[in-house]
Design a protein that fits this description.
The chain has 248 residues and is of the alpha/beta class. It has 11 helices and 6 strands. Strand 5 (194-200), helix 9 and strand 6 (221-225) form a beta-alpha-beta unit. The protein is globular, with a radius of gyration of 17 Å. The model has no long low-confidence stretch (mean pLDDT 94).
């Protein structure tokens, strides 16, 4: 049986990819770890993109799998997976899947870097206890889910799912490190692996036009889910699982 490892995004835990995992588990062995500092997993000392990549390298090796796994990432998880595929290509199968990848051209990246510095400055002025509560609050969770959800007929359900499965992290320092990773890094198209992109047509974090441009330039497979935003894992988990299964 083929093994799939799913990597979640910022503020998330493995449970946020639960519906995708459930649909895939009928045909595959599915592993959904929490990233360090998320859920109940201990925090990394080096909580950077490179730190996540090196942690994932050790994590996969410690699984002692008979066959190399397929690696799939959502949102910030797609950043981790895409860069991992370049640094440790021998750890995984020849195909990777990037769900709701976040592509940023140089101009957009500069703006994101500035926005990140301003946000982190604001968060660091708060008492750490307040910062921790705010970043894990229902208020912030609902703002994010309203902004990133496209199908408003599912809004109430997704609000509940997002709050239930996100905002669980070890410390204020931990979530601020994740903010820096997610805003100062971006997804890449791995040159050493075959890649499939799965996106919602109305993703606000990376426009469909930009994603198509990156897909054409790298000649990779792109599957688009209509009437769907960044939370394709909540809005359309069955289609996401179908597209993954078709590819691998």
């Amino acid at each position: 049986m083929k093994t799939i490892i799913l990597i979640h995004g910022i503020r998330g835990t493995h449970r946020g990819l639960g519906a995708v995992a459930k649909n895939l588990s009928k045909k595959y062995k599915v592993i959904t770890p929490d990233l360090p500092g998320s859920g109940t997993r201990a925090e990394l000392k080096n909580k950077t993109l490179d730190g996540y990549i090196d942690w994932l390298h050790k994590y996969i090796n410690n699984l002692h799998l008979k066959q190399k796994p397929y690696l799939i990432g959502h949102s910030m998880g797609s950043m981790v997976v895409s860069h991992f595929a370049e640094k440790y290509p021998d750890d995984i199968q020849e195909k990777v899947v990037l769900m709701a990848p976040v592509f940023r051209p140089k101009k957009n990246q500069k703006l994101s870097n500035i926005s990140c510095d301003i946000l982190l400055f604001f968060l660091k002025t708060m008492p750490q206890k307040w910062c921790y509560k705010f970043m894990g609050s229902k208020f912030l969770s609902y703002i994010i889910s309203h902004y990133l959800t496209c199908d408003k007929t599912k809004q109430k359900e997704i609000d509940q799912l997002h709050f239930k499965y996100s905002g669980r992290f070890s410390s204020a320092k931990s979530i601020m490190a994740d903010i820096e990773v997610s805003m100062k890094q971006s997804t890449i198209i791995p040159q050493k692996k075959k890649t499939k992109l799965i996106v919602g047509d109305k993703d606000k974090l990376s426009s469909l036009e930009l994603t198509r441009k990156y897909a054409r330039r790298a000649n990779v497979t792109l599957r688009i889910i209509p009437n769907c935003g960044h939370f394709i894992n909540y809005e359309s988990p069955q289609k996401v699982a179908k597209f993954i299964s078709e590819y691998i």
